[in-house]
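Why should sequence recovery work at all? Because a backbone constrains its sequence more than one might expect. Tight turns favour small or flexible residues, buried strands favour hydrophobic ones, and helices have their own preferences. The token representation captures these environments compactly. In the example below, the structure is given first.
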């Protein structure tokens, strides 16, 4: 796009072996609030992947023997630099993918907390000892680095997603090659600049920009890559698992969701409604853990729909740089996909409970509550990544559990109830990686995070469970 803005837009480079490596082929990065080109980044090829693997391998031996205290110190320094550059990072994330600035600032804070936790994990990579059947034999396990890890990230959390992979990889002594989402690669490049400033040696973390089908796939297939951590759609996750499976290398897959909340007849709606609105609308509904199905008890459904629709109709829409509640979707294509899902649901018999349709021009979409959705409709089954809430009516919590579990996904689920039996039964029987009772689907920065079924595979991210992906257990027998 050769608009004047596009000509002025800066040209970024890959980061390979501690150097900025410009590229002859580039691709534009758009601001979804204005549809202007804000930068150009490399459209890398498989030969760039080769270069990054070589750089990561050259750095691997030195980094693997770097004292864990030093790895921890670099991570803490990185966290301090994120705090110093908080405004810059938040503004960049908002301009490349559109979420409101307040949420981008929250994302920087969250990334800082996760790095701080992981800096401690560097010192908690402990092993075990075992009794021996032969006298004088010491048997122990040690956690050793996996090697070179490919980290492939989505655009919806442009700061947290790469941090959630880079920090645990570094804590455990691995080298990394990051392939950020083509929609939002700029935050990753800035984060890795800050990592250089924190004192990380060149080549330990490398960044290659480009398309998933070209460089993402080449990374996963590369014989020099020892493990793949991926966050993104279930469809791409499956492809990655197939390639990695043939190569017998481990994967950590954080995939999509169709997260349900059950609202019981005993629920306090004053508490439930704001939690559901916030958990469904943050990032314009483009969160993997966004609530997208509301399973409402018949006894409160009409009241609940009225309140949810009123709250949705009151949300301010606009550029994330303004004081609004909801920003644009990531692109016009994403807006069109979500709008098509809404049209399909209305055709299937769902009823529009919200009134307004006054979104600004561009990648914006007015948030929608759909009532009278049934479990077999596409809107109740597909991950619709946008500001759409589908309300399904259920007779009791048992039906709510059945409907929740009828989805192939199993990321997060929530229930609002003041009945302890309902709370316990829901938490016990629902098939989800994370269950929230009287609590939206937000998570904390030291607690394992992940999904089951089509929502994920491999060790959970964030908490201490990352060790099971980012280290290999070595068993040692020593006879004196
Ligand atoms: P996506 O289309 O699956 O892309 C994710 C990443 O994979 C991007 O970097 C993409 O590159 C790359 N990729 C695409 N095809 C590839 C291939 N064949 N081989 C290797 N890499 C490939 O997902 P998205 O649209 O960016 O993100 C939204 C999805 O992420 C949603 O489904 C959401 O639920 C999920 N998500 C899950 C979590 C979680 O923790 N469970 C968190 C956040 C998001 P391109 O950018 O070039 O396409
Ligand atoms: Mg963009």
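From this structural description, the recovered sequence reads:
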């Amino acid at each position: 796009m050769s608009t004047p803005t596009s000509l002025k837009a800066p040209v970024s480079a890959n980061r390979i072996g501690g150097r900025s490596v410009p590229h002859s082929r580039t691709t534009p990065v758009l601001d979804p609030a204005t549809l202007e080109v804000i930068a150009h980044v490399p459209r890398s090829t498989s030969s760039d992947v080769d270069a990054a693997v070589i750089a990561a391998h050259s750095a691997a031996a030195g980094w693997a023997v770097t004292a864990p205290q030093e790895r921890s110190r670099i991570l803490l320094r990185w966290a301090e630099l994120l705090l110093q550059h908080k405004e810059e990072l938040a503004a960049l994330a908002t301009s490349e993918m559109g979420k409101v600035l307040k949420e981008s600032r929250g994302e920087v804070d969250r990334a800082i907390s996760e790095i701080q936790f992981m800096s401690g994990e560097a010192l908690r990579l402990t092993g075990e000892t075992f009794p021996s059947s032969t006298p004088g034999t010491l048997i122990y396990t040690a956690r050793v680095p996996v090697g070179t890890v490919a980290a492939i990230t989505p655009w919806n959390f442009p700061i947290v997603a790469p941090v959630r992979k880079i920090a645990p990889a570094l804590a455990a002594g691995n080298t990394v090659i990051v392939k950020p989402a083509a929609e939002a690669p700029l935050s990753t490049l800035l984060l890795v600049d800050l990592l250089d400033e924190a004192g990380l040696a060149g080549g330990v973390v490398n960044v290659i920009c480009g398309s998933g089908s070209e460089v993402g796939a080449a990374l996963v297939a590369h014989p020099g890559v020892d493990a793949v951590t991926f966050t993104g759609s279930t469809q791409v996750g499956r492809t990655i698992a197939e390639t990695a499976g043939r190569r017998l290398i481990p994967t950590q897959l954080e995939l999509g969701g169709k997260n349900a909340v059950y609202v019981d007849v005993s629920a306090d709606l004053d508490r439930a409604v704001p939690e559901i609105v916030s958990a469904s609308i943050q990032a314009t509904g483009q969160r993997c853990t966004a609530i997208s199905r509301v399973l409402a008890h018949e006894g409160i459904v009409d009241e609940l729909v009225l309140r949810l629709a009123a709250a949705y109709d009151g949300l301010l829409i606009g550029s994330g740089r303004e004081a609004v509640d909801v920003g644009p979707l990531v692109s016009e294509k994403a807006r069109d996909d979500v709008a098509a899902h809404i049209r399909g649901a209305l055709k299937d018999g769902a009823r529009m409970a919200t009134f307004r349709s006054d979104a600004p021009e561009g990648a914006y979409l007015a948030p929608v509550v759909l009532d009278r959705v049934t479990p077999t409709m596409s809107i109740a089954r597909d991950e619709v990544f946008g500001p759409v809430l589908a309300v399904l009516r259920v007779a009791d919590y048992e039906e709510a559990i059945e409907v929740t579990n009828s989805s192939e996904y199993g990321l997060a689920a929530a229930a609002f109830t003041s009945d302890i039996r309902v709370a316990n039964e829901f938490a016990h029987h629902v098939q989800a990686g994370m269950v929230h009772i009287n609590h939206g689907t937000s998570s904390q920065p030291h607690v394992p995070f992940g999904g089951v079924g089509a929502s994920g595979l491999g060790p959970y991210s964030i908490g201490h469970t990352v060790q099971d992906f980012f280290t290999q257990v070595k068993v040692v027998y020593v006879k004196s």
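A few observations help interpret the result. The CA atoms of residues 279 and 442 lie 7 Å apart.
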